[in-house]
Amino acid sequence: MLGIQLMSALSDPYREFDNKSVLVTGGTGSFGRRFIRSLLNRSNVRRVVVYSRDEFKQYEMQEQFREHAAVMRFFIGDVRDGQRLQLAARETDIIVHSAALKQVPAAEYNPFEAIRTNIIGAENVVHAALNNGIEKVLALSTDKAANPINLYGATKLASDKIFVAANNLSGSIGTRFSVVRYGNVVGSRGSVIPLFRRMIAEGADHLPITDARMTRFWITLQQGVDFVASSIAMMRGGEIFVPKIPSMRMTDLAACMAPELPIREIGIRPGEKLHEVMVTDDDSRLTLELPDRYVVEPAFNFWERETYLKSGAKSVAEGFRYASDTNQDWLDGDRLKRLMAETIE
Questions:
Q1: Is residue 194 in a domain?
Q2: Which residue among 55, 158, 197, 246 is least crowded, i.e. fewest CB within 10 A of its CB?
Q3: How many of the other CB atoms lie within 10 Å of CB of 331?
Q4: pLDDT score of 224
């Protein structure tokens, strides 16, 4: 059965959403908008519920997707509000949980707010899913959850653990919970590419780099959306899915964007890592490799590891570490420009 699911997920993952009702928390964010657009364009989804606290962005989405009004529903609400979330999740088949406080400095300065949204919010999603008999829940995570050194990463690690452990609670309900973890989205708000673009346009005489040794993983928004869709199609419950994506040195990125400008090191910021890690060496004992992704298995007695192995997955070597500085796939200038051609809305 899983072999069929894997083949379907890799070829046409959006078939999973045909005639389904899908709730997207944080649905007015850049990921939510692109994911919902992909659902509407590539599946016969029965209903899409947008759950977010930004009424103006919901109004913009209603205008943007006016031709799909028959299947769109909009709920003003916060993932901190468990009762509201319970109502929004009624008669839903799939939840994609993308709502989060994501800015590292903001989380450091406002730790309780990050905890309430990223951890308590995750618990509320789990309760809403179990109480409404949801079929599948997939939560978006971050590379910063692997060996976290800042509060944002720590809250997302706690969130990941909550969703993985929630599979132990579903019992006869049958709800399955999994997680997707990936790195920087090319051109996303708060990332370095829009910053460099603005500085170049304003006539900057240099580009700032926190540390010349720094490397990062990169993925486009559409690649992230498609990866989430395929992970939902193949998930069994408890997995953390990690895509195979390219890395780039930040100095190379700056040189590609503005080869004529010098680079100035400004020092690494609090809570910032030199390199991103998405699979730690401690996770390697529970990690399987597929052609386009790694799958970190849950440590459940009932999890059927053999079904993945029979479908072509292979165990990685003990001590394996998937990090941006040891990655085998590196971006050059031409590939970066192709990725930058796709910008978020």
A1: no
A2: 55
A3: 23
A4: 95
Q: Which residues pair with 218 in a beta bridge?
A: 184
Separation between Cα atoms, residue 25 and residue 267, nearest integer Å: 35
Does residue 307 fall inside a structural domain?
yes
In a domain, 203, yes or no: no
| Lookup result for tokens 């709502």 | 99
Q: What is the CATH number of the domain that holds 161?
A: 3.40.50.720
Domain that holds residue 154: 2-183+220-243+278-316
CB 219 within 8 A of CB 278: no
342 belongs to a structural domain = no
Domain count, the chain: 1
The dihedral built from the CA positions of residue 146, 218, 120 and 168, taken in this order, carries a sign that is negative
The per-residue pLDDT for range 115-151, each reduced to its tens digit, is: 999 999 999 999 999 999 999 999 999 999 999 999 9
For residues 280 and 146, the answer to whether their CB atoms sit within 8 Å is yes
Cβ partners under 8 Å of residue 212, min gap 6: 250, 251, 263, 265
Would you list the DSSP string of 60-113? HHHHHTGGGTTTEEEEE--TT-HHHHHHHTTT-SEEEE------HHHHHH-HHH
Residue 144 annotated in active site: yes
Is the distance from CB of 182 to CB of 219 less than 8 angstroms? yes
The active-site residue, picked from 144, 161, 310, 314, is 144
State pTM to two decimals.
0.92
CB 218 within 8 A of CB 246: yes
